[in-house]
From TrEMBL:
InterPro entries listed in its UniProt record: Kinase-like_dom_sf, Mito_inheritance_9
Keywords (A to Z) from UniProt: Mitochondrion, Transit peptide
Source organism (scientific name): Xylaria bambusicola
Protein localization: Mitochondrion
Family: Belongs to the AIM9 family.
Protein name in UniProt: Altered inheritance of mitochondria protein 9, mitochondrial
Superkingdom to which the source organism belongs: Eukaryota
A GO cellular component annotation in the UniProt record: mitochondrion
Length: 167
């Protein structure tokens, strides 16, 4: 690949390319433009999975705060890397927040592990208690949400109420 083509490909990694804004688009795009050392990311990712080098890198997703890349290595391994955008605030606090959420989720699943596995499996003996727990969690979620977010949550969690009524 010629150097100019490689630089153009890298430039796409830096730019926000997942959507448009109806107003003040230039400002929104500047907020989400993040230059980073692509080669160094590839080197670090390769080392993390005992590979010699990265052979492919694709931007998989980007939201308002992060860009997510999939890096494929010469040994067949794949690594997911996340680059935060400048508008996310301090990396220290955003990482701390993500760790806190992961800890909360781990604590939740540890707390219900006697009733249900993380994949949703439950024994015949604990099924009724698990259904009751998730039905209560559903009701709490519905109380706290509004609008489209509430409607989506309602659609996605109806199974809990249906399962509770079947008993």
């Amino acid at each position: 690949m010629p150097l100019s083509a490689a630089l153009d490909a890298q430039h796409e990694f830096f730019r926000y390319t997942s959507g448009r804004w109806l107003w003040d688009e230039e400002s929104r795009l500047r907020e989400r433009y993040r230059v980073f050392d692509v080669h160094e990311l590839q080197v670090i990712a390769a080392k993390s999975v005992c590979a010699e080098k990265c052979v492919d890198m694709v931007k998989r997703a980007e939201g308002g705060f992060n860009k997510v890349f999939r890096l494929v290595m010469d040994n067949g391994s794949a690594v997911i890397a996340r680059i935060s955008m400048p508008n996310t605030g301090s990396p220290r606090w955003t990482t701390a927040s993500e760790v806190a959420i992961m800890d909360f989720n781990a604590d939740f699943w540890d707390g219900v592990s006697s009733l249900v596995e993380r994949d949703g499996w439950t024994s015949h003996e604990t099924y009724d208690d698990a259904v009751e727990l998730f039905s209560q969690l559903r009701q709490e979620g519905l109380r706290q949400l509004e609008g489209e977010e509430r409607a989506k949550f309602d659609r996605e969690t109806r199974w809990a109420d249906k399962a509770a009524r079947q008993d």
